[in-house]
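Lab notebook, design round three. We kept the backbone fixed and only want residue identities now. Task for the bench partner: fill in a sequence for the structure below.
Input structure tokens:
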């Protein structure tokens, strides 16, 4: 069976990743229905029923870890501990979800992957890229996405959006995932700089969607990129 297609979404919190993942998943499912293909039957099989996950999270273990790592009211973590927890989560979701789905020929859409660790812990926390890439090789089998969509709207706009989102979440369900957003602006500038460095280094894999654009405009660009990689027509 042909290996599935692995797409990751990257960017600062508030960049619109969650919205775009939902829209891409819906477009893939609609395209599959229009194609008349069935799972496991030829080149269109990889667009059927995409698996959508987020990091940290995606497994029972990962969801518990997510609450620990992202809750701004939780225990203070050293940069090294924070990075180690991210890789523990990633190793588990690769073994439990990502590799099995890809082996079944499924498309996997993942909200964050190792590029996030390199940007946030390598860049923002100052641990550097070398250790992140080595840990990825050791604990993740050096699994690489087929395509990474890096959404980088203006920094101030991203931070304002995520602050509003976190306030709504805390008011509605008491969940606080704003630990990183409470960092000083210089932390986020280091993260942003590292993302640009990664995009330059991994230009064959990463599609940079930079600047302020509407939700529809970003979705249209993402659809065009994914359709090109999968050899699909762009269906409305």
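Proposed sequence:
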């Amino acid at each position: 069976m042909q290996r599935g297609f692995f797409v990751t979404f990257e960017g600062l919190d508030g960049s619109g990743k969650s919205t775009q993942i939902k829209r891409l998943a819906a477009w893939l499912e609609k395209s599959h229905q229009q194609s008349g293909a069935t799972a496991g039957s030829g080149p269109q099989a990889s667009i059927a029923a995409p698996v959508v996950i987020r990091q940290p999270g995606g497994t029972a273990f990962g969801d518990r870890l997510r609450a620990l790592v992202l809750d701004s009211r939780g225990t203070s973590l050293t940069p090294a501990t924070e990075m180690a927890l991210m890789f523990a989560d990633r190793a588990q979701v690769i073994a439990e979800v990502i590799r099995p789905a890809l082996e079944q020929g499924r498309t996997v859409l993942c909200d964050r992957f190792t590029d996030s660790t390199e940007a946030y812990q390598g860049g923002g926390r100052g641990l550097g890229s070398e250790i992140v890439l080595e840990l990825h090789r050791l604990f993740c089998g050096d699994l690489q996405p087929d395509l990474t969509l890096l959404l980088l709207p203006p920094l101030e706009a991203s931070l304002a959006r995520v602050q509003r989102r976190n306030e709504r979440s805390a008011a509605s369900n008491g969940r606080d995932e704003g630990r990183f957003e409470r960092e000083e602006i210089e932390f986020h500038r280091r993260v942003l700089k590292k993302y640009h460095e990664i995009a330059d280094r991994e230009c064959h894999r990463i599609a940079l969607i930079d600047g302020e654009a509407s939700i529809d405009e970003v979705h249209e660009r993402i659809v065009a990129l994914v359709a090109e990689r999968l050899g699909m027509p762009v269906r409305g």
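Keep this in mind before ordering anything: The chain has eight helices and five strands.
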